[in-house]
Structure formats: structure tokens, C-alpha cells
């Protein structure tokens, strides 16, 4: 740990030396840094502007700019949010206020993949303990993504607004384009937006290609809004998503298509005297097909050695949700009370074949699976006096999951037949009654220094994958470790007891915000080696010992900070530093897939029409790996990025840059393991490499 800190601190100091040299030889004028005040008395949020990552088509990569956050990348369009060691279903992610579900069980279409990077207006991360108003099952935090959206006109005339962009990336010969246009007056607004993204296999470590990592995606949305003279607002939204053939080399199959959309309606009523009613409904219907032979060679490792084995699968999700929130003044603060709910239905069928052995079979992996959530909450923010502020929240959530009968046509396999009968004849139902509670106290020690202390109890019910994966399978919800997993319908909900201590120091030229946290998680869900003879026998063809989801006790702890320094009117220095450790408490083992100690430092120079920056990104080695699934250690790495922006005309911006300037080898510990044979000199099971040197350009115009 000490060596890692020394390494990263050395990098930080080295990156800061140019700025410090400037400061040493410059007479600094008085600097006043002004920012728009955001009324959030109890809770920090980090709001990200997508223009900070103009080369990315995956909005999830923005999270790398947030202290404590990172991204699990399963493919060019499949970024999964991780926050303080928790990821996937443990982090509540919404797009436009909608809880959009993954179309399948592999993590290929996580929530943020429904919002292309160039159509993203903002990504907001609740830092630390997420308030209960931020959503259901926020055991690992909460993230809110917002698409570009129009506004009503304030004058008595029709207004036209919009934004467009075109981008290019050299590392994968990638192209992207987007357009969002709106017409509005005081009472009506109508908007259209669309984007197209495509790219070839990306290069790493010189000129090697990762196969398959090509991608293609189209997205468009239509929205209408009405505002009455009294200020009430009605909104109608439709988002459509169409991903074409896209590689996911750390998963057993690649995306052939993901198609479908989300319809939404929302209504806001001003009841007067500071009282506001907000309601929304949404409906999602999407289909997904994947296989292992269109973009990659159909080779599978079996007990008999590598064999030609094909898989193609069709999955679907249909669901929706509803939200009602009443906001009203109460004592010296604001009280929010409300209801959240969502429902989803999942199906998955896989066709398998081994032509060399004359074998064909069909597996009904998930059939009529339902997962429904219904939740009530109350959340109060207020001032106890001029220096003390408090957030209190309470939420009750009922989660109901059930599955239909399944089948596997391999009648010759007695182990599979036993598991099928056991599942069909057993209980295929699981429910949970969860109570979350939050208390966060903030005390202003003086005008520049604020202390924060928080306590919380958070819960998460098991996912349908963890419950109803009825035979050993590579479907892992994004773990992408190449292992076989088995579900358990009797899993208990995770219960996390969280504490947080933070400090915020703000001066006109400097800010520093360190946080320390500890989470004790009772009944944490992870895979453990199965001892069931039928499960072990059903997995024998794959030469892998299967893992079965089970409840264990664990804890996670760490610290993170963000900081910034305005050296003078033009030079700025800022950065983040993050550390998390996860361990099981029932035995001496680490939790799987914890991001290592990492941070970034950026030195930037600003003028009225242009900006230039140099950025250092550093990851320490990760040796604290889990033994239960043979997790591989990863070495550390340091990358340098150059970025520039020029605005020749109001609204017209040109972004240019070079990422991984020195073309250094980099393998993020959160990346999956290669599951493709003949993949650019990557052996099966090797950590997926990060991108090599990438030149990018992005031209955008807003009016």
C-alpha cells in the first residue's frame, strides 16, 4: 500500500511541477473564482460535462473523471458503472429519470449504453452516501444521466435551438455524428435528436488489433413538452436504440443487434406555496440477439480439447415504471415523499451446436422471469441553524421475483435433466422487504471548511440472474471472468451498513474534498465453488469448476478525494485520487474486481477562445485479488493525454487531442478476460488491453 501511494504521489508531483514553476516565477494577481450556486445543502453531487471526453461514444467512460468511480468495459458500447468497488445492479443508474433494464443477463446493454456519448447533456454522480430520494436499491450509489433536451422560450416568439457534432478517432478508425434540434415558444416545445456511431477493431501496443471490437449504433429520440400559464408542465418522450454487430471479446458471444425503445410521460404540477407534484411513467420493449460465430471463430474449450461449437441466443425485456414525488416546505427545509415502482419481464433462449460431434440442443435459460419493485420514501433536507445541515431519509422497498418453467433438450445428460427437474418442481419465487435509512450531517466549521458525517443502511435484493440461473452458465451479469455460474432461488438480500467522513475545503483559488468510507455488507452475493454433484457434472464439458451464487459477509473500505487549484487567471490544476479495498469476512479472501489505487492530474491553460491541457492518468498494480475465481493480478501503468479546444465563433468548437500519447501498454484491472480464440495474439483468459495511441478530433456547433 505504501509503495503504491509513493508511486502515485510521485506522479502527481511530477505532473504539477510545470504549474508550480509557472507559479514560482509569476506575480499572481488576486483571483476570484465564481461558480453558479447549486442548492444542495445535504449531499454532494458531481456533475460531468460530456465535452470533457469528446473522443468517447460510451457515456460510461465519463465516470473515470469522478473520485471513487470507474468503468467496467465489456466492449466499445458496454460500459458498466463501478463506484467504490460496487458495480452493475448495486449502483442505481437512471437515464432521464427512467430505470432502463439490461436486455440480457451478460451486461452487454447496461443502462448507460442507451444514451450515446454525443447526445449526453450531463452525468451526475451522488458522491458518498446516496440520499433515499435518488432511487431504489442504491447500496452502491446512484448516477443520473440526462440527454440533451430543449427548453421553453421565455419571450413571445418562436425560438430555434440545437446542437450538432462530428467526431473521428484514429485508434479504431471510428466515426460519429449527432444532431439535436428544437423549436419552441412559451407553451410548446418539440425536439428531434439522432446519432450514428461506427468503428473498426481497436489497436493496442503498436499495431495489434483486438478482434472483435468493431461497433455500430444508431439512436434517435422525439420529445414534446407543454407548459401552461400557471407553470404546469407535461412532457412526452420516446428514445429508440439500434445497435448493430458489435464485438464484446470478454464475453462468450458478440452483439448481433439490440433494438427497441423507451416511451415516457411526465407531469409537473405547481400547487403553490412551494409545493410541487411530479409524476412520470415509462414503458420499455427491447430485443437482443447475439452469437459466437459472426464476428469471431466459433471455438470452445471442452473436456475433449478445443472444438467448433456455435451458440446463438435471443433475449428480450419488457417492462416499465412509475414515479410520484411530492415536494413541500417543512420546518426549515424541504421534504420529499413519494412512490417509485418498476416491473420487468425477461426471456432468453440459446441454440447450441457441435457439428464435428453431430450435436444440437436448445436451452431455455430464462422463461417468463419477472422482477417487480414497489417502494415508498420520505427524504428531508434542512438547516438546523446557520452552520448545521441535515439530510434524513427512509425508504421501504418490496421486491418480488419469479420464473417460469425451463427446458434443455440434452436428454442424454442426466445431470442437466436433474437440475431441470429440480428447478421446475421447486420454488421459483423470491421476495424481499427492504428498509433503507440515511442520516448525513454537515457542519460548516467556518466559511471555507465543512465537515460531513454520514450513516446509512442500504439493501439490494438478488438479481434474476443470481436467483434463476438454473444450470452452470457463462452468463454473469458483467463479471466477464470466463467462469461458469449457477443461481440459487433462496438467496437473501444484501444489507450494507455504511459510514462516511468527509471534509470540504473551498477558498477562492483552491478546493480539496477528501472522503473516507466503510461498508459492512451482510449477505453479500458472490460465487463460491459449488459442491453439488449435479452442478459439477453439468459443467464437466467445459473443464471448469462451477461457482454458485451464495450469501457471504464482506466489507469494503477506502478513501477518495478531488481537488483543484487556480494558479492564476489562465493556469489551472485539478485531479482525483481513489482507493477501495473489499474483503470477505468469513475467510481470508478479497472481493472480486476491485479497482486499484488510481488517480488523474490535469494541468490546463485557458484563454477566451481556446484551451490546452496535459493530463496524467495513473493506475497502481492490483495484487489484492480474489482466490475463489482465480482472479489474475494486474500491473500498474501511467498514461499521458493531450487535449485542446478552440472556439473560432460563438457556439462552434473544435476539439483535438492525443490519448495514450506514448502508446503505452495498459490493462485496466476492471477489464474483462479474453474469451476469443485467435484474438490479436491475446491468449484466452488474458486481461483485455486498453486502447493504444489515439488521435481524435471533434467538431461541434450549438445554436
Short characterization:
The protein is mainly beta. The protein contains 4 helices and 34 strands.
Task: Give an overview of the whole structure.
The protein has 703 residues and is mainly beta. It has one domain (2-702): Maltoporin, Chain A. Helices cover 7% and strands 52% of the residues. The chain contains four helices and 34 strands. The strands form five sheets. The protein has a 22-stranded antiparallel β-barrel. A hairpin with a 3-residue loop joins strand 26 (494-506) and strand 27 (510-529). The longest helix has 23 residues, at 2-24. The protein is globular and about 75 Å long. The chain starts with a helix and ends with a strand. Mean pLDDT is 90; it is low at 1-43.
Give me the count of strands. Answer: 34
pLDDT < 50 runs, ≥5 residues: 1-43
Q: Count the helices. How many?
A: 4
Question: Which CATH architecture is right?
Answer: Beta Barrel
Instruction: State the end-to-end CA separation.
Output: 50 Å
Instruction: Return the average pLDDT rounded to an integer.
Output: 90
Characterize the largest beta sheet: strand count, sense, and whether it forms a barrel.
22 strands, antiparallel, barrel
* Domain tally: 1
Amino acid at each position: 500500500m505504501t509503495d503504491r501511494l509513493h508511486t502515485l504521489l510521485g506522479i502527481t508531483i511530477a505532473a504539477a511541477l510545470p504549474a508550480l514553476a509557472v507559479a514560482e516565477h509569476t506575480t499572481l494577481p488576486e483571483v476570484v473564482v465564481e461558480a453558479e450556486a447549486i442548492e444542495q445543502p445535504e449531499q454532494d453531487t458531481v456533475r460531468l460535462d460530456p465535452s470533457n471526453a469528446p473522443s468517447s461514444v460510451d457515456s460510461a467512460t465519463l465516470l473515470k473523471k469522478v473520485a471513487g468511480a470507474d468503468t467496467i468495459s465489456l466492449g466499445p458500447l458496454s460500459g458498466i458503472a463501478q463506484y467504490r468497488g460496487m458495480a452493475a445492479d448495486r449502483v442505481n443508474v437512471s437515464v432521464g429519470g427512467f430505470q432502463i433494464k439490461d436486455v440480457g443477463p451478460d451486461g452487454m446493454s447496461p443502462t448507460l449504453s442507451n444514451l450515446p456519448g454525443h447526445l449526453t447533456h450531463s452525468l451526475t454522480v451522488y458522491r458518498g452516501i446516496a440520499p433515499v430520494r435518488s432511487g431504489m436499491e442504491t447500496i452502491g450509489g446512484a448516477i443520473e444521466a440526462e440527454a440533451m433536451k430543449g427548453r421553453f422560450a421565455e419571450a413571445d416568439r418562436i425560438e430555434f435551438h440545437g446542437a450538432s457534432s462530428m467526431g473521428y478517432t484514429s485508434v479504431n478508425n471510428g466515426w460519429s455524428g449527432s444532431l439535436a434540434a428544437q423549436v419552441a415558444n412559451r407553451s410548446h416545445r418539440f425536439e428531434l435528436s439522432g446519432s450514428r456511431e461506427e468503428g473498426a477493431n481497436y489497436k493496442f501496443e503498436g499495431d495489434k488489433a483486438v478482434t472483435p471490437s468493431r461497433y455500430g449504433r444508431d439512436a434517435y429520440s422525439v420529445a414534446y413538452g407543454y407548459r401552461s400559464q400557471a407553470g404546469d408542465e407535461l412532457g412526452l418522450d420516446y428514445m429508440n436504440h439500434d445497435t448493430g454487430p458489435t464485438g464484446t471479446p470478454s464475453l462468450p458471444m458478440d452483439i448481433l443487434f439490440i433494438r427497441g425503445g423507451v416511451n415516457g410521460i411526465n407531469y409537473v404540477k405547481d400547487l403553490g406555496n412551494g409545493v410541487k407534484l411530479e409524476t412520470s411513467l415509462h414503458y420499455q420493449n427491447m430485443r437482443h440477439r447475439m452469437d459466437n460465430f459472426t464476428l469471431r471463430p466459433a471455438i470452445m474449450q471442452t473436456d475433449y480439447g478445443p472444438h467448433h461449437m456455435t451458440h446463438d441466443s435471443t433475449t428480450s425485456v419488457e417492462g416499465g415504471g412509475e414515479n410520484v414525488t411530492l415536494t413541500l416546505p417543512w420546518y426549515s427545509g424541504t421534504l420529499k415523499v413519494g412512490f417509485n415502482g418498476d416491473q420487468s419481464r425477461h426471456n432468453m433462449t440459446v441454440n447450441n451446436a457441435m457439428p464435428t460431434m453431430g450435436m444440437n440442443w436448445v436451452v431455455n435459460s430464462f422463461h417468463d422471469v419477472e422482477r417487480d419493485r414497489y417502494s415508498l420514501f420520505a427524504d428531508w433536507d434542512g438547516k438546523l441553524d446557520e452552520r448545521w445541515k441535515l439530510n434524513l431519509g427512509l425508504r421501504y422497498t418490496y421486491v418480488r421475483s419469479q420464473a417460469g418453467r425451463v427446458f434443455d433438450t440434452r436428454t442424454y445428460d442426466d445431470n442437466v435433466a436433474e437440475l431441470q427437474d429440480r428447478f421446475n418442481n421447486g420454488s421459483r419465487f423470491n421476495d424481499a422487504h427492504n428498509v433503507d435509512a440515511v442520516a448525513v450531517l454537515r457542519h460548516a466549521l467556518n466559511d471555507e471548511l465543512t465537515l460531513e458525517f454520514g450513516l446509512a443502511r442500504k439493501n439490494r435484493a438478488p438479481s434474476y440472474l443470481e436467483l434463476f440461473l438454473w444450470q452452470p452458465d457463462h452468463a454473469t451479469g458483467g463479471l466477464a471472468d470466463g467462469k461458469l455460474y449457477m443461481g440459487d432461488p433462496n438467496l437473501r438480500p444484501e444489507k450494507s451498513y455504511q459510514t462516511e467522513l468527509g471534509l470540504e475545503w473551498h477558498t477562492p483559488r483552491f478546493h480539496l474534498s477528501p472522503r473516507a468510507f466503510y461498508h459492512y455488507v451482510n449477505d453479500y452475493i458472490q460465487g463460491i465453488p459449488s459442491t453439488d454433484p449435479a452442478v459439477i457434472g453439468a459443467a464437466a464439458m467445459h473443464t471448469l469448476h462451477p461457482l454458485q451464487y451464495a450469501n457471504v459477509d464482506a466489507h469494503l473500505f477506502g478513501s477518495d478525494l478531488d481537488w483543484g487549484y487556480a494558479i492564476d487567471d489562465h493556469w489551472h490544476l485539478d485531479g482525483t485520487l481513489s482507493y477501495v479495498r473489499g474483503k470477505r469476512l468469513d475467510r481470508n479472501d478479497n472481493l472480486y474486481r476491485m479497482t486499484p489505487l488510481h488517480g488523474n492530474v490535469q494541468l490546463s491553460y485557458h484563454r477566451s477562445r481556446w484551451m490546452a491541457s496535459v493530463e496524467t492518468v495513473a493506475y497502481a498494480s492490483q495484487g489484492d485479488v480474489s482466490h475463489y475465481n482465480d482472479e489474475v493480478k494486474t500491473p500498474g501503468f501511467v498514461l499521458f493525454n493531450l487535449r485542446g479546444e478552440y472556439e473560432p465563433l460563438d457556439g462552434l468548437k473544435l476539439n483535438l487531442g492525443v490519448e495514450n500519447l506514448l502508446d503505452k501498454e495498459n490493462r485496466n484491472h476492471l477489464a474483462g478476460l479474453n474469451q476469443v480464440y485467435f484474438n490479436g495474439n491475446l491468449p484466452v483468459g488474458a486481461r483485455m488491453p486498453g486502447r493504444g495511441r489515439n488521435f481524435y478530433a471533434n467538431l461541434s456547433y450549438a445554436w
